[in-house]
Amino acid sequence: METINNLVCIICPKGCRITIEYEISENKSKAIKSISGFSCPKGKFYAEQEILEPLRTLTTTIKTSYKEHARLAVRSDSEIPLAQLIPVIKYLRTIVIKQPISAGTCIVKNPLGLKTNIIAADDIL
Ligand code: SF4
């Protein structure tokens, strides 16, 4: 099935409007046929990534044992595949923080085998 997507590039303030034509095969794999509208290689790479394997930074909270600070804000220290956001969030729901934490501390290293770490975005002191 042939599909056309229009994206606004978010890499820089110019905000180029990029059009991508791609084919989705029966096994759901995607093959890009053409990309237009970008003004630089970064925009072309961004558009390819958005179609083939979109990435996002995960931001969420983790439960703590402190009444006055019941949840700790956390984030991934790098982008992860969009499809992995919900599985990682479900995994983080199984964790309870029981000790003081400083912002930037690694809470979980390589969750679900991903090449990222979940770090504290706030303090519990
Ligand atoms: S394509 Fe290049 S110039 Fe255009 S918004 Fe993206 S990064 Fe900026």
Keywords:
alpha+beta; 2 helices; elongated; three-stranded antiparallel beta sheet; five-stranded mixed beta sheet; 10 strands; single chain; 16% helix; 2 domains; CPE0013-like fold; binds iron/sulfur cluster; 125 residues
Bound molecules: iron/sulfur cluster
Overall number of structural domains: 2
What is the radius of gyration computed over CA atoms, rounded to a whole number of angstroms? 19 Å
Rounded mean pLDDT is 96
CATH class of the largest domain: Alpha Beta
Describe the model.
Helices cover 16% and strands 38% of the residues. The chain contains two helices and ten strands. The chain is elongated. The mean pLDDT is 96. The site of iron/sulfur cluster has 11 residues, from helix 1.
Present the secondary structure layout.
Blueprint: E1 2-8, E2 17-24, E3 30-36, H1 41-52, E4 55-56, E5 59-64, E6 71-76, E7 80-81, H2 85-92, E8 96-97, E9 106-109, E10 117-120
Parallel strand pairs: 5-8
Antiparallel strand pairs: 1-2, 2-3, 4-7, 5-6, 6-10, 9-10
Bound molecules: iron/sulfur cluster (SF4).
The site of iron/sulfur cluster has 11 residues, from α1.
